[in-house]
Amino acid sequence: MVAKIIDGEHYAADLRDQLAVEIAELARQGIRPGLATVMAGEGYAARAYERRLRGLAGKLGCHYVCEALPENVTEADALAAVGKLDADPRVSGVLVLRPLPRQVSEVALYRLLDPVKDIEAVHPVNAGLLTLDRPRYIPSTPASAFHMLDRYLRESGRDPQEVYARSNMVLVGRSNNVGKPAVILGLNRNATVLSCDVHSFKAGLLYSHTAQADILIIAAGMPGLVTGEHVKPGVIAIDVGINPVEEPRTGKVRLVGDLDFATVAAKAEAISPVPGGVGPITDVWLLRNTVAAARAAAGLPGTEPEQRPHRLAG
Ligand SMILES: Nc1nc(=O)c2c([nH]1)NC[C@@H]1CN(c3ccc(C(=O)N[C@@H](CCC(=O)O)C(=O)O)cc3)C=[N+]21
């Protein structure tokens, strides 16, 4: 079987075009969405993402600011930086880039935010709304993974709801902004969801579960963690891994996923690549959440938590 490679760049371009139209409409009403990022320390992936967000916000005509904090920042200073952005009327949404230095609690930072500005949906109120399937926002990375799945299934002539309802969906990784919300999104789509993480790996359970997956979503942060021998023929594999690896010969750093692409692609029905898969959709989705936050701040309709079960658009 030669897997269909799901083209995240193409999906991202369509979402970007739709977003540009929405932003132009807001501009006519004198509303300019503003994105703020907070970065503490020097992680490669965080810097790569901050650069993409800065570039996309600029291209879309949004206000953008990045609060770059030193690795040894105190929690009090980090809280003050987030508090300043929370009070800034030009800022519609705030993203605190992970990883944070050990001495700064992510939950403390997010709890400080007005939930309307929490565009990563990790504030307790927003995480609760997502769990109840009444989301204000969906965290951009899991939203991008499911947008990709929904669109791929529809374009291959299937009803995503029907596929999910009869699928074993295995999630690998349990971070607050990716793995855990992805479990909730799978449950809210009636999939049979199983969540694995490093404890599953250490207990020798991981591969017995990945081998059962009809749909595998992996966000573990370990290059090549899952290979072709760990999946069943026909799996639909979504790789959310963003692992910087250095090329020994050139010393150049590039991002790779958590799947061993070649061997999984040899067995999968479809697979999303890294780069070029979930990644390019992620920054567009964060800007979508920022635009929704700008609409909410302006009191425009359609941005309060959903009154009915939510389905990803697009
Ligand atoms: N609170 C928080 N939320 C995040 O979502 C978050 C974060 N912190 N910290 C850092 C990581 C990293 N991250 C990336 C997302 C997309 C690409 C991306 O679009 N990559 C391109 C390739 C870029 C390249 O090769 O340099 C692609 O996959 O095609 C990269 C990195 C989000 N992160």
From TrEMBL:
GO molecular function: methenyltetrahydrofolate cyclohydrolase activity; methylenetetrahydrofolate dehydrogenase (NADP+) activity
Keyword terms, alphabetized: Amino-acid biosynthesis, Histidine biosynthesis, Hydrolase, Methionine biosynthesis, Multifunctional enzyme, NADP, One-carbon metabolism, Oxidoreductase, Purine biosynthesis
EC number annotated for this UniProt entry: 1.5.1.5, 3.5.4.9
GO biological process, one term: methionine biosynthetic process
Residue ranges annotated for the Tetrahydrofolate dehydrogenase/cyclohydrolase catalytic domain, each copy included: 6-120
One GO CC term on file: cytosol
Signal peptide: none
Short name of one Pfam family: THF_DHG_CYH
Pathway: One-carbon metabolism; tetrahydrofolate interconversion
InterPro entries in UniProt: Aminoacid_DH-like_N_sf, NAD(P)-bd_dom_sf, THF_DH/CycHdrlase, THF_DH/CycHdrlase_cat_dom, THF_DH/CycHdrlase_NAD-bd_dom
Residues the entry annotates as binding NADP(+): G173, R174, S175, I242
Reaction equation(s) it catalyzes: (6R)-5,10-methenyltetrahydrofolate + H2O = (6R)-10-formyltetrahydrofolate + H(+); (6R)-5,10-methylene-5,6,7,8-tetrahydrofolate + NADP(+) = (6R)-5,10-methenyltetrahydrofolate + NADPH
Keyword Amino-acid biosynthesis: yes
Entry superkingdom: Bacteria
Complex formation: Homodimer.
Function: Catalyzes the oxidation of 5,10-methylenetetrahydrofolate to 5,10-methenyltetrahydrofolate and then the hydrolysis of 5,10-methenyltetrahydrofolate to 10-formyltetrahydrofolate.
Protein family per UniProt: Belongs to the tetrahydrofolate dehydrogenase/cyclohydrolase family.
Name used for this protein in its record: Bifunctional protein FolD
Organism: Amycolatopsis alkalitolerans
